Amino acid sequence: MTAADKIFAHITANGSATRPAMEKKFDLCEKTVDAAFRKLERLGYIKRDGLTPKIRHRKSAVIFVLASAEPDLKLIADTRGRPSVKATKAGPTFDALGAAMNALFQRRVA
User: Fold this and answer.
1) pLDDT tens, 80-92?
2) Measuring CA to CA, how many Å separate 44 from each of 3, 7, 62, 72?
């Protein structure tokens, strides 16, 4: 199981989670937990729900809960790295460019 899988399973079972709690529970480093939360949030599985109260000298932690909306299925196809955006509309062709250049250079100045 990946870190994201473990965290998602925990949030599903318990309703919420924070980064520091997941670091301690699964004995993972801060960067791994942060990347897993970012991935789950980007895919639409979780969302931010608030902050924990400050206790003495500790900073507040973001509380994550399950997202109410369905995740964006377009982003799930490739879950590694950043989501890619594919062009749906074809750009100009070389024939169209050649025709435009011919029209420009054949134009006579009066």
Assistant:
1) 555 555 555 666 6
2) 16, 14, 16, 6
User: What domain range includes position 7?
Assistant: 1-75
Specify whether the CB–CB gap between 65 and 18 falls below 8 A: no
Q: Which two tokens stand for residue 101?
A: 């250049």
Bridge partner list, 51: 62
Residue 105 placed within a domain: no
Write out the H or E segment, with its range, that includes residue 47.
Answer: strand 46-51
Whether 20 and 64 have beta carbons less than 8 Å apart is answered as no
Its pTM surpasses 0.90? no
Cα 69 to Cα 25: distance, rounded to the nearest angstrom:
27
Q: Is residue 59 part of a domain?
A: yes
User: What CATH number does residue 15 fall under?
Assistant: 1.10.10.10
Q: Look at residue 96 and tell me if it is in a domain.
A: no
